[in-house]
Design goal:
This protein is of the alpha/beta class and 132 residues long. It has helices at 16-26, 73-84, and strands spanning 10-13, 30-35, 38-43, 46-52, 65-69, 96-97, 102-108, 114-120. It has a four-stranded mixed sheet, with helices on one face. The chain has a four-stranded mixed sheet with strand order 5-8-7-6, covered by helices on one side. A hairpin with a 4-residue loop joins strand 6 (96-97) and strand 7. It is globular.
Amino acid sequence: MSNIIRITPFMIVPDLAAAITFFVDILGFTLWFKSPGYAYVQRETSAFRLLEQKGFDASYKHRYAYYIDVEDVDALYAELKPKLTTLPDHHHHTPTDKAYGQREIVICAPDGNLLAFGSHLFFAPDGVRKPE
């Protein structure tokens, strides 16, 4: 019997209210808990613990990146597209096939954190992902 439910990484954000708005209003997550400087958001089996740190330098070139595996990235993109168009230019891209066997969209949060959503392009009969 498995005892692990999910991994919920901490995402450091400079503005908790903006991060909550982005996750809830743009990406369709549910806000389950909020206290000063902290929030927990979840969508299906993915969740983040948003931790506000004032003075966080979002312009730093190395950003946190989070990868969320999904069954159908094209369906997710179609769902999110109307709201993604409200983001600044170049803060998301359409689904793209990658050489490593994933089809992905990447979305830049207001604070510069990168969220990648991806689905497998192919599987071998044994369930192991193999190149074409």
